[in-house]
């Protein structure tokens, strides 16, 4: 015979102190090197829990992350949660005070649909739209965590890094089979399409990451991506300065500068992405296939990576004083012969 697994008591049935203790176990946060905020959520709390403990969460967690320059939301260990908690996480990352319809949930037992919208107001502050957000996923990320990941990806608010998610269900119900000791676990709720987007969702197939990498390497990869994105403004600025100082087609420089200032780098997650995007844009605007950007890796020296100019130092040739040395130099530079047909 099979027995239904024992379930932990619902958070709403606990005292406020017990809820707080459970919540603290499921949420971890810190500020990493480079002023990158890190927030790990292992269980999405319900609306009831957030309404009771929202002040604590804002004061002890969120305010410490508000001053960071980018945020990593780690959902690699989040296998579920409460549907009612979705609007809270999305709303703190949704820019502005405009409400947005992010999903519609169908519940089979009640035969009802529920629209999920971002909140018009949040306790505390929203995370700035100018700051990058990365969501980490694994093959265990499931249910409500998948919906949050997919919504943020569809909104183009977050870069998803890690593994394809499990493709689970928003809500599961255990049903006893007749009078036996057997139980059937059935998905009873489903997403009808985040952001009102058709019938295809993440359920069954999972959420495909923007950058695929093994889950255990996802944080390291995310930090590398954020380092690159942090350098983007400086790269663009130096590129503009180089065009102004050196590009011979002077009449096209203003248009090129305007194009660079208005380029969308939201999808750039690697040096290859950046080089491809810059070259495609610059050559289209300038109509000059010679205008090229390339990435050059710094040279390794005995003391570590060489920092500074990527180009080798210019070598200025010197003319030797001795006649034989001068002849040897000439012969090393020039080769002279008469080909058949008296062709020099």
From TrEMBL:
One Gene Ontology term, aspect cellular component: cone matrix sheath
Listed GO biological process terms: proteolysis
Pfam family, one: Peptidase_S41
GO MF terms held by the record: retinol binding; serine-type peptidase activity
Domain named Tail specific protease: residues: 15-214
Source organism superkingdom: Eukaryota
PANTHER family found in the cross-reference section: INTERPHOTORECEPTOR RETINOID-BINDING PROTEIN, RETINOL-BINDING PROTEIN 3
Protein name: Interphotoreceptor retinoid binding protein
Organism: Galidia elegans (Malagasy ring-tailed mongoose)
């Amino acid at each position: 015979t099979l027995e239904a697994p024992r379930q932990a008591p619902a958070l709403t049935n606990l005292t406020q102190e017990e809820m707080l203790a459970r919540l603290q176990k499921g949420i971890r946060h810190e500020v990493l090197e480079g002023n990158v905020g890190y927030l790990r959520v292992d269980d999405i709390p319900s609306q009831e829990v957030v309404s009771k403990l929202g002040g604590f969460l804002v004061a002890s967690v969120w305010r410490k992350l508000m001053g960071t320059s980018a945020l990593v939301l780690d959902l690699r260990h989040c296998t579920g949660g409460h549907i009612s908690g979705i609007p809270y996480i999305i709303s703190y990352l949704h820019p502005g005070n405009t409400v947005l319809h992010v999903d519609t949930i169908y519940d089979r037992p009640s035969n009802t649909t529920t629209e999920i919208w971002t909140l018009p107001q949040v306790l505390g502050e929203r995370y700035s739209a100018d700051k990058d957000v990365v969501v980490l996923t694994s093959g265990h990320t499931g249910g409500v965590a998948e919906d949050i990941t997919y919504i943020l990806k569809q909104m183009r608010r977050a870069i998803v890094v890690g593994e394809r998610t499990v493709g689970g269900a928003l809500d599961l119900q255990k049903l006893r089979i007749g009078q036996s000791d057997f139980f059937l676990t059935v998905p009873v709720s489903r997403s009808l399409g985040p952001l009102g987007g058709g019938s295809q969702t993440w359920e069954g197939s999972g959420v495909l990451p923007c950058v695929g990498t093994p889950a255990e390497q996802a944080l390291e990869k995310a930090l590398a991506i954020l380092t690159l994105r942090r350098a983007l403004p400086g790269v663009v600025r130096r590129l503009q300065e180089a065009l102004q100082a050196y590009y011979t087609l002077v009449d096209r420089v203003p248009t090129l500068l305007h194009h660079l200032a208005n380029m969308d780098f939201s999808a750039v997650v690697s040096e290859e992405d950046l080089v491809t995007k810059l070259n495609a844009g610059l050559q289209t605007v300038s109509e000059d296939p010679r205008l090229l950007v390339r990435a050059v890796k710094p040279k390794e020296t005995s003391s570590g990576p060489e920092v500074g100019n990527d180009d080798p130092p210019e070598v200025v040739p010197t003319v030797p004083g001795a006649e034989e040395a001068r002849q040897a130099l000439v012969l090393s530079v020039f080769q002279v012969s008469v080909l058949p047909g008296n062709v020099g």
